[in-house]
TrEMBL record:
Keyword Coiled coil found: yes
Keywords of this entry: Coiled coil
Protein name listed in UniProt: Cyclic nucleotide-binding protein
Organism, scientific name: Gloeothece verrucosa (strain PCC 7822)
Coiled-coil region list: 34-61
One Pfam family matching this protein: TPR_19
Top-level taxon of origin: Bacteria
Lineage per the UniProt record: Bacteria, Bacillati, Cyanobacteriota, Cyanophyceae, Oscillatoriophycideae
Amino acid sequence: MYNDVAEAIENQDYQSAQELLQQIGKEDSDNPWFQFYIARLDEARANLAQAHQQYRQLLLSSPNPKIVALARQGINRISELEDRELQIAKAQRQEILAKLNSEPGNTEPGILILEPIPNELKQKAALAFAKIMNLDPYSARLQLPSRVWRLYRTGNIGEMRYYQELLTKAEIPCFSASLPEIKRFQVYEIKYLDSVSPQVTAVYKPKKGESETITFDWSMVTQRVEGRLPIFEECIDIDAKRQLQRKTKTLDYIQVCDLHLKANWGAERVPHSCIIRLWDQNYEFQKGVNFSSAQHTGEPKTTSDNWKQLNQYLNQQLPQVPVWSDFNHFAETALDFQEMLKLIEPHITLLRPEETPWDAAFELYSRLVFIHE
């Protein structure tokens, strides 16, 4: 009957081949020839991954040298077919990207963000991701995030949207954003909150001119974004050979909290969506609203104490507002894209001895959260 199966497959009569194998399987399912023709039928039907796995199993388990040779030939055929398909897909993709990149509006710089995937779905997603990004499955799995966003690729926004479309069809969560989209929100660096009821009046100082105020309702706040930015210090250390070494160490962290305001055209001073930025080293706690709930003990409060009380007050006022606090994990991938970060202006007026990409990374993270909402 195996000759009949082979003839049916050769004639592309796959239904007959399957029916014959079903009959054989009732009595002879442990026979290596039965397992070989199951793999051969899967190969003929273009179930290549399944056929490849079955051929490899035969290489490991079959004592029959002829079956081993045929299984090896099957693996080679599948590899050659996959290589041809890959080259064809690559050529088609290059043609599509060349056309996209020539169209107006697609040449702006952009980024592609991968969103977290549950571990139980990663194996299937990794196979699809590997095919789209031309990676091996193991490397593809390592690239897919489990907990936080991953800044995966930069380039023309047309190209990023193309990959987003492919990944979305493969059920791999992701999104893209162009540089103009990222930059469109205005940021107000708040010096202090002058009042908090019935509306919030926040005092900020623009780059030029005197202090100004912005007024908004708590109901306009849709998200909070928190992060810690390292403050670096250069120091001299002595190594094991008692030689002087110049090192950069983390001295402290800046605590930053962004409030995202959705546009409310009825508000006098907030005619557009914007970001209200609070950070501990910039906030003038001695001015405006006193957020301390305890009586003053006479001991001077630290900036850390004041910042903690301000955050407790925000928690009370915004109990239902989602808080994004995964910036530092996101930064681990974002810091690899220095050229993109150079295009992001960080609205954190901090005098640093030298620039650091951490400030731009937080700026990017907060703005992406706003876009993704």
